[in-house]
Amino acid sequence: MKHIAYTIAAFLFLAVSIQIQAEDSWEKWGPTSGLKGGGFIARVGYVIGGTTPLPLPAEIRKINSFSPRGGVSVGIDGYKMLGKRWGVSAGAHFFWEGFHTSADVKNYYVWLEQEGEITKGYFTGTNITNTEMWGVSLPLLATFRMSPRWNVSFGPYLSLYFKQTFTGEVYDNDEGVGYLREDTPTGIKILMDRENPTPYPDNFADNMLPLNLGMELAFDWKAMRHMNVFGLLDWGLTNIWDRKFEAISFRMYPIYGTLGVAYRY
Amino acid sequence: MNKTTIASLAALPILLASCIAAEQPNTECDIETVSLRLETPTDFFYHDYDTLRTVISAETDIVFIIRSYANMQSVPLSLRITDGASVFIKSDDGTEVPFLNGSDVDFSEEKVHHFRVVSEDGAWSRNYTISVVHDVPSEGNLFIDFESYRLDASGKYYIWDAPEVFTDGLWKNGNPGFKISRSSAKPMEYPSTPVAGGGPDGSACLKLETCDTGPFGRMANMRLASGSMFNGIFDVGNALKDALKATQFGSPFVHKPVQMRAWLRYEPGATFQDFDGKTVSGVTDEPDAYVVLYRNEDAGGNKVQLDGNDVLSSPYIVALGRLPHHYNEDGSDRLSNNPIHGITNEWQEVTIPVEYKAEIDNDVLENKGYSLIIGFASSWGGAYFKGAIGSKLHVDNVRLFCE
């Protein structure tokens, strides 16, 4: 999956850069108002990631394709250093993030309810998923200055969603296999194909929770006097689905990374 | 721990998340095809293709029909089952032994053999029966009163006994498909239902009603279900993928139909809608009723079975009788606000003459080379999901007259 390669490359780049900056002074790259000072960081970044079950359940046999949707994050953090190395920060990051994926699945349990009608069973074939989320994340982080120009921050965040979409469809895989076994693996074999794909019900996103709790890990590199280059990872720890929602038999977590630049004061 | 390691560790969980877990063993346990190996199949069967049966997923009792005078003994039997599954045959004393493909099975005296298929993961199994029965001679003329009906095994919808010459001795209709889309429907809310005491003679009759398929029907672009009744096979597995293929019409028949008479009563639904569910003003829904005789084998010896695509248009059709409708000059159907079929909400006996388009080969006829279809529908565009929700066709006391 491409986004993983990008993420790793970014982290490696950041890590290697650390070594070059050793000789810089703590004061020069510290907060404008001194080593125990505070300030703000205004961030803009590109968001990439996915909402995924962890680990991938055995029902998922193959990821055919993955592409990001949305991918914008704009935010501001206020920070206060408590000493030379330690500080705290809190902020608000507005985001639009999401992805599209095609996966081959086998015996994937689905339970669909619409207007009191229920269809359920085990699906084998290709499953397309698209999700997009608009919202704001509120991180509360501890900051550690690893070196004059490098900060790492870690702590919890709460995401609030303004809007979420979750759509998709199922049909046959490249070998032409696509069917739902109604109720149990011995039930009627209802064939499906891409000529007439079966979409997810319209109301799927209604079952998404409006908030998510997770942990954020952020690296900031002070590239210039007032400009940072940053990379951060938001790792959702709570299920995106309401616990009453049975259409998807496993928990899913949003895991999104942001790469961007920031104005630091 | 250096900083590079820390940074790599942060990315590690993403890598783990994208690992594909080991594939689980199969959970399915179907017999997909059954074949009998015979040196000269047509000594026993009417067609070479009759020795191979494709088993639809809803079917568990597999019956081969042989000529009335044929005497089948032990025959090598082969089953194609789900990958990884195992199959057992039950002996007379009830014990199960693994069944090896190609083993001889004694089908004399119409013995019914019981098989059990167990899934690869061992958690699921299905029971099947396989038997070979003799053809029942038919007299030709049929009288159908729809008096013999009951709930199916799921208790969700009604099924009707059909004349013995029809496939499985049962009428087929779209009820099993409706069950997929409208799981909450009660048996009397299905498109094909019995009406006790509703017939012109005070006995039970058949009611076919065009029904709304609900949210799942809309999702699948199948917004209505016409009430239907026909002989043949309803392959519910195809109901979503290719609905026209789900209705496989006809059963072998050794007589020449000349006329069908049926008691009919019709009440069109209020609003005619097209495939997209849009109201079409000025169009009144119409019922359908037809008799078809068609050649059931092509020049290459392959089975021909008409389905929703060509039930009334196939070049294999040799004789056809249908309730009259308006047609366009090119022969295509034209939905009209001035139905000429003349069926009203009062019971009346309608006569549908059967017209022959081709010469009948009597030798082929005697050897079940033709199949007969009797079909009724509450919306004649129902196969294409066009019609009026609430259209009701009542049917009773159908007579087929043969030469």
Commentary on this structure:
The complex is a heterodimer of chains A (265) and B (403). Chain A is mainly beta. Chain A has one helix at 2-20, and strands at 38-52, 60-81, 86-114, 117-147, 150-171, 179-182, 189-191, 198-199, 211-224, 227-236, 253-264. The radius of gyration of chain A is 22 Å and the shape is elongated. Chain A contains one helix and eleven strands; from the N terminus they run αβββββββββββ. Chain A has one domain (2-23, 39-253). Chain A starts with a helix and ends with a strand. Chain B has 403 residues and is mainly β. Chain B folds into two domains: 31-134, Immunoglobulin-like (Sandwich); 142-402, BT2081, beta-jelly-roll domain (Jelly Rolls). Helices cover 9% and strands 35% of the residues of chain B. Chain B contains five helices and 30 strands. Chain B has helices at residues 3-17, 175-181, 214-219, 243-246, 362-366; strands at residues 31-36, 52-54, 61-66, 74-81, 86-90, 96-98, 103-106, 112-118, 125-134, 142-144, 149-151, 158-160, 192-195, 205-209, 211-212, 224-225, 228-230, 232-234, 247-249, 251-252, 257-267, 272-273, 288-295, 306-307, 317-322, 348-353, 355-356, 370-377, 387-388, 392-402. In chain B, a hairpin with a 6-residue loop joins β11 and β12. The termini of chain B are far apart. The relative contact order of chain B is 0.14. Mean pLDDT of chain B is 90; it is low at 5-13. The chains are: A mainly beta (265), B mainly beta (403). The interface between A and B is large, with 58 and 48 residues.
